[in-house]
Design brief:
Keywords: Signal. The structure is a single chain. The chain is globular, with a radius of gyration of 17 Å. It has 1 helix and 6 strands, in the order αββββββ. By secondary structure, the protein is an alpha+beta fold. The chain has one domain: Ribbon (CD59), CATH 2.10.60.
């Protein structure tokens, strides 16, 4: 690959990386069924990160929340009889399932 093509490719990737996040759209819902039905939920944006969180008690889903979040920490946290699962993603409408 010659130098000009390489510089153009790097410039293109940097612009898309830097500005692509500003246009990120995410599904948003509370008490959603998974996978999320795109026809039954809101779409929000621009977002920094899409997230989805699910609370389970005794391996039964209690609630699922998806949305457009300012920041996100992916985690699986276990409590006595419950579990919190949080997932983060960085593409348009990527928070459709855990």
């Amino acid at each position: 690959m010659n130098r000009n093509r390489f510089v153009n490719l790097v410039s293109f990737l940097l612009v898309n990386f830097l500005y692509g996040g500003l246009a990120l759209q995410c599904y948003e819902c509370v008490n959603c069924e998974l996978p999320i039905d795109p026809q039954s939920v809101e779409v929000r944006g621009p977002c920094t990160v899409c997230g989805i969180a699910q609370m389970q008690e005794n391996q039964t889903v209690v609630t699922t929340v998806a949305g457009c979040w300012a920041n996100c920490n992916a985690q699986d946290t276990n409590f006595d009889f419950s579990r919190l699962i949080v997932r983060c993603c960085f593409a348009d409408l990527c928070n459709i399932f855990i």
